[in-house]
Amino acid sequence: xxxxxxxxxxxxxxxxxxxxxxxxxxxxxxxxxxxxxxxxxxxxxxxxxxxxxxxxxxxxxxxxxxxxxxxxxxxxxxxxxxxxxxxxxxxxxxxxxxxxxxxxxxxxxxxxxxxxxxxxxxxxxxxxxxxxxxxxxxxxxxxxxxxxxxxxxxxxxxxxxxxxxxxxxxxxxxxxxxxxxxxxxxxxxxxxxxxxxxxxxxxxxxxxxxxxxxxxxxxxxxxxxxxxxxxxxxxxxxxxxxxxxxxxxxxxxxxxxxxxxxxxxxxxxxxxxxxxxxxxxxxxxxxxxxxxxxxxxxxxxxxxxxxxxxxxxxxxxxxxxxxxxxxxx
Length: 329
Description:
By secondary structure, the chain is α+β, with helices and mostly antiparallel strands. The chain is built from 10 helices and 8 strands. It has helices at residues 3-12, 23-31, 58-91, 95-104, 110-142, 146-156, 165-179, 246-252, 286-295, 297-327, and strands spanning 36-41, 44-49, 195-203, 206-213, 217-222, 235-237, 243-245, 283-284. A 3-stranded antiparallel β-sheet has the order 3-4-5. Strands 7-6-8 form a 3-stranded antiparallel β-sheet.
């Protein structure tokens, strides 16, 4: 079965109408630019397939890319919103959890939460594949690399769904719930055929989150902080998609732990990709923090003691400066 048909069946099978990639509409746009040049010579018809589109096609570039960009924005927005609601429910406690349940009419059992997490990860992965395939189709039609250039541009605009910090959180959420709350529950509903599961793996003591989808597609998220070169502790994801320890990110942004990343100056750049203004919208990865603390208990305790000392030191310095400023010293 071709991916386009499989994708259409998947989207139609969803209970709620979700944003997706308009394969048929985008293919129609591309068909306008792929024609056969018929050359008749001596009563014989010779069909030559040549690219009729220039390097920058007004038809495609004026309709194809804007349409795809709009669809990508809607997909990422829908995914982030649903994932955030699900994770807020899982991490909430006491009255707040019951309030979210009543307000959103969310199912309370863990099987439903696990299934919704699986569905969201599958939704993200299959749409990422759909976008990749339609861009390959564009490059094939135009004999160019404009599709790949557009993908890079979309990543810089944070429209790439695989860059979303909520995808990493959902993968950790799935593992956490599967290994703890779901142990004593008989899960009768099977995972969707597209989804094979998420796993935390260690290679040479370096952790990574892995997710497998159909057609041998695999997503790996490295969980090593590129600043301290250790497993990320109290992890935070910058808006560019790179993950660091919270303390390492604060040091890179030239702010204290007490002040936090929100007050980082817009000129401060990501240590890896050097993109500016990535700290203000940083997301704390709570589910990933829980997963790593359970998987690396000895390392976690050691880092906890080290960071507690540093946090106390920075807090003392902060309040000393505040007191001096208040007293005018």
